From TrEMBL:
GO cellular component assignments: cytoplasm
Keywords linked to the UniProt accession: Oxidoreductase
Residue ranges annotated for the GST N-terminal domain, each copy included: 17-96
Gene: LOC112052091
Organism: Bicyclus anynana (Squinting bush brown butterfly)
Listed name of the protein: Pyrimidodiazepine synthase
Length: 254
């Protein structure tokens, strides 16, 4: 699959009849929906969008021009990762990802809401040119503490239970990116294994979930993309090898 991000002037690829997700490869919100589609083993097409130079037709699928947007029928779409993912879980119930208990579903939503402050702290830290305010570090650490305590309270391998669920696929994309912060010169945002042993164990388990493993990127890759955005020239196509895949043979592994 090409990971080229389509931009202004590029034509909309033909509709194949599958679900089609419009995303951006480095967007954590779009990743949430990719992980849910993967977890449910639904066939889908993935179209990446350059968010700095958006193709004109993306506004037909989301008037805001944002991702993710899910085309569920030709020319018809819904948007926002939370809306998309609940729709997918209800439309394709064969692999249920939400808790069956209404109270647990509500608690999961509360957890996501409380974790949002850590997500905001991540963005501030990632795109701040130099040092960040102590309050940003505090909000970030509160998010880590929240997850550590919740994992201890629930006593399960994943937040959802013995298998990952919607709550895990919602939070994971940010945990994946948290590990890039020390590489961006922000050591105060490192995740101390001795303090967050349960959280670190949880993160390692998530990395090995097939739905995650098929899409996850290394901290070094996230750091490299973030650096390009900070410089004002986001390298959306840094992963795209479609132009050279037929020209350069792969090297044999030693």
């Amino acid at each position: 699959m090409s990971e080229k991000h389509l931009q202004t002037g590029d034509i909309l690829p033909p509709y194949t009849g599958k679900l089609r997700l419009f995303a951006m490869r480095f967007c954590p919100y779009a990743e949430r929906s990719v992980l849910v589609l993967n977890a449910k083993k639904i066939e889908y097409d993935l179209v990446f969008i350059n968010l700095d130079h958006k193709p004109e037709w993306i506004f037909n699928f989301n008037p805001k021009g944002a991702v993710p947007a899910l085309e569920y029928e030709e020319g018809k779409a819904i948007f926002d990762s939370n809306i998309i993912n609940v729709y997918l879980d209800e439309k394709y119930p064969e692999v249920p990802l939400q808790a069956s208990d209404p109270l647990r579903r509500a608690q999961d939503k509360c957890l996501v809401e409380l974790f949002a402050s850590a997500q905001s702290a991540y963005y501030t830290a990632a795109f701040a040119p130099q040092n960040v305010e102590p309050s940003t570090v505090e909000n970030y650490k509160k998010g880590l503490d929240l997850l550590q305590k919740e994992l201890e309270k629930r006593g399960t391998k994943f937040l959802h239970g013995d298998e990952p669920g919607l709550i895990d696929y919602t939070i994971w994309p940010f945990l994946e990116r948290f590990e890039a912060l020390p590489l961006l010169g922000k050591p105060e945002f490192s995740i101390d294994k001795s303090k967050y042993e349960l959280l670190v164990t949880y993160m390692e388990a998530m990395k090995n979930v097939p739905a995650v493993k098929a899409y996850t990127l290394a901290p070094e890759t996230h750091a490299k993309f973030t650096e390009s955005r900070v410089k004002g020239d986001a390298n959306y196509n840094m992963l795209d090898t479609s132009a050279v895949c037929c020209m350069r043979p792969r090297k044999k592994k030693e």
